[in-house]
Amino acid sequence: VIVVIPVVALVAALWCAFPRSARLAPLATFVASLVGLVLAVQTLWTLRAGGVVIAAPGWIEIDSFGALLLCLIAFVYVTAALFSWGYLHADGDRRVRQYHANFNLFAFSMISIPCLSELGLVWIFVELTTLLSVLLVSYGLTAEAVEAAWKYMVLTLLGATVAVLGVLVLFWALHGTGSTDFTWDGLRAHAAAMPHALVGTAFVLLLVGYGAKIGFVPLHTWLPDAHSQAPSPVCAMLSGVETTAVLYVILRLRGVFAADPSLHVGTWFLIVGLVSVGAAALLIVQTHDYKRLFAFSTVEHMGIILTAAGIFTTAGDVGTVWQMLSHSVAKSFCFYAAGAALIVTGTREIADVRGLLGSNRLTAGALLFGSLAIGGAPPMAVFLSELAILWAAVQAHLYAVAALLALFIVIAFFGLLWRVTTMLAGTPSETRRQLPAACVLALVVAAVPVLLFGIWLPNGLSEALQSAARVIGL
Amino acid sequence: VTLLHELNALVLGLFIIATIAMTVTRQVGACLQVFVVQSLLLAASAFLLGVVPFSWHLVALGCVTVVSKAIVIPWLLRVLVPSEIHRKREIARAIDAPATLLAALVLTFAGYFFAQHLVTAAPNLSGGNISMGFAALLVGLLVLGVRVEAVPQLLGILAMENAAFLVGIAVAPDFPLIAELAIAFDVPLLAFIVALLTRIAYRSMGTTEVGGLSTLRERAP
Predict the structure, then answer these.
(1) Does B212 contact chain A (CB < 8 Å)?
(2) Cα A135 from Cα A109, distance rounded (Å)
(3) Selected residue of B139, B187, B193, B215 to mutate for chain A interface (largest A Cβ count, 10 A)
(4) Could you give the CA distance from residue B210 to residue B154 in angstroms, rounded to a whole number?
(5) Number of other CB atoms surrounding residue B181 within 10 Å
(6) CA distance B213 to B87
(7) Is residue A118 within 8 Å of residue A58, measured between CB atoms?
(8) Coil, helix or strand for B18?
(9) Which of A32, A339, B126, B212 is the most exposed place for a label (fewest CB within 10 A)?
(10) Which segments in chain A show pLDDT lower than 50?
(11) Are A34 and A21 a contacting pair, CB within 8 Å?
């Protein structure tokens, strides 16, 4: 099953590349994503209590943590495919076909990450996520879109180059123990015996290298630029799951680095996490573009997840995976809402949008709902996961961490609401267009888990979260 | 064995000189040629380290490097990037050539000394590869910082990747297939994507001086 899911996306990409497939390309993408979601949910259900599904020992393996990420990617893939259907309906056949071919390839690269257990292969697919999404970011073909794509590519590939050196040094460290089992489990099993100098160097290189791709401050500068220019469904994929998929790699390696107490991995996670949350909260307040607003919110949430992982307790680990889940579903919804606003108003400038509540209630409602959801208002999913992290910090006697995190979350929440509500009130400035039906459907589907997981977490999913947290905490 | 090590030391010296040359070579086409030389030197180091004890991983990596970086990438860039860009001389630079050279020397020493604590951790390995790899990585970063043209910026990234693999062939000679796969598929794909993006930039903006792009800067609401 775990081989079939990426292969389905690859087949859909190849199908969309054929010149005669333009009209069916959105359907092919949607069907491939739906098949992927069904198989991903089945995999998570199988692994919800623990265990591993092995397709190729030492290369292609997945456990509950990987299966959870796989489900998140598959879900956002479905909703993004649906939203793309409506979002691109006015574009020419050739561009739509190229978009869907690229989009499926991008999904293929991301879906592969949680299915792999060999760190070198994981690095290749992390780099592929950049390479296969650059042309999606530049899809608008404007000077600004090219600038955004270029910055995205240069910074993230720079990070990937630093990270590959980290991967090589980590292999060197593993080799020193007499093992060549370069998998998550192999690395953990031999972590204590690895030379400290090498593990420390690998830690720095991997945190900086992958940190550029995740968007940790100060390596986050590509993120708002790329998100302001990329088509909204691509933003949903980039922000909702791509950054999370790379953070997943760091989280899986936490146990390897933590085997050397002199590295103070937890402290570094807390510092980098809190700096990212704080800087993003302050940037949210002053941004002028509502897509950049949600991009800064992604920087904030990546910081929150890293901070939770830095607490180093079981409760903190549960908060980590819970926040990954709630962020992915809420952030993808936010970008669909932003995409809807862009379709309706034709501008990304917050100052140019007024009276949205009067002219298009659905879009206004979606923007407000998205802002409340990602800001952490009750009873949304993010509220509960952030509360769990704050409580975990208090239980671990990290009072300063809890206080700072709470302060930054509150600043970001009010910053988001302030910027979004200015777009809703007032007199509509111009004639507004209607949303395509596929976009409306995508918004509805994407909203379900945002609200549902805040009110009721199904037993199977709750079990899977606990199991995934155990994988991080091993 | 001693001769091989001495030859490898010579290759490493030339490797760092080639990387420094990439920071100051003004013509885009010439920068590409210097990158090809740097890649061939990486391949030469892999061959020299792979002879005794024999390592088919290193020999394969050397072969893949020659094909991918000395043949496929220059061909891709010549086919996809408009020829006038190859002939173009970079006038605008972030900092001028003497200052760039000075910065490159400082970074070379910084990388060399940073790597020393790793070299002492593994006395049996080729310490020169580790030191020069780290030094070239920092100089590659400088290439990215000072060059404003799209193609030299791409070559800066690839030069950094070469530097990372220069370390890799010494510290992880039996790294399972990954380096070969990365160089064989990822790197040409990277060059292809960058070349396409360069074409798009040339059409939409009339320039490929991507280093000066700053219209998306954050501003107060």
Answers:
(1) no
(2) 14
(3) B193
(4) 11
(5) 14
(6) 22
(7) yes
(8) helix
(9) B212
(10) none
(11) no
Contacts of A238 (CB under 8 A, 6+ apart): A133, A137, A226, A227, A230
The answer to whether B115 faces chain A, any CB pair under 8 Å, is no
pLDDT of residue A432: 66
Sequence-distant (≥ 6) Cβ neighbours of residue B73 within 8 angstroms: B35, B158, B187, B188, B191
Q: Quote the DSSP letter at residue A351.
A: G
Q: Could you give the CA distance from residue A328 to residue A333 in angstroms, rounded to a whole number?
A: 9
Q: Do B167 and A169 touch (CB under 8 A)?
A: yes
Place of tokens 């939770």: A308
Write down the residue that tokens 């199991």 correspond to.
A467
Contact of B124 with chain A, judged by CB distance below 8 Å, is answered with: no
- Judge contact between B115 and B130, C-beta under 8 A: yes
Q: With CB atoms and an 8 Å threshold, state whether A154 touches B144.
A: yes
User: Model confidence over A177-210: pLDDT tens digits?
Assistant: 989 899 999 999 999 999 998 999 999 999 999 9
Give backbone dihedrals phi and psi of A52, rounded to 5 degrees, phi first.
-140, 140
**A-B contacts at Cβ under 8 angstroms:** 142
Convert A107-142 to b/e letters by CB count within 10 Å (16 or more is b): bbbbbbbbbbbbbbbbbbbbbbbbbbbbbbbbbeee
Q: What is the pTM of this model?
A: 0.94
- Tokens 């930054």 -> residue: A408
Coil, helix or strand at residue A180? coil
Name every chain A residue with its beta carbon within 8 A of the beta carbon of B182: 123-124, 127, 164
Tell me: ipTM over 0.85. Answer: yes
* From A127, A154, A287, residue closest to B153, measured CB to CB: A154
Residue A168 has which token pair? 């090589």
CB-closest option in A121, A141, A292 to B178: A121
Q: Cα dist. A359→A220, A342, A343, A364, B139 in Å?
A: 35, 14, 13, 9, 55
For residue B4, count CB atoms less than 10 angstroms from its CB and return exposed for 0-12, middle for 13-18, buried for 19 or more: middle
The CA distance from A213 to A217, in Å, is 11
Residue A118 three-state SS: strand
Helices (H), A376-455: 381-395, 399-424, 437-455
Does residue B186 sit at the A interface (CB-CB below 8 Å)?
yes
Dist. CA A184–CA A136, nearest whole Å: 31
Residue A183, beta-bridge partner list: A118
Tell me how far apart the alpha carbons of residues B38 and B17 are, in angstroms, rounded to a whole number. 9
Angle between helices A243-258 and A119-131 (to 10 degrees): 160
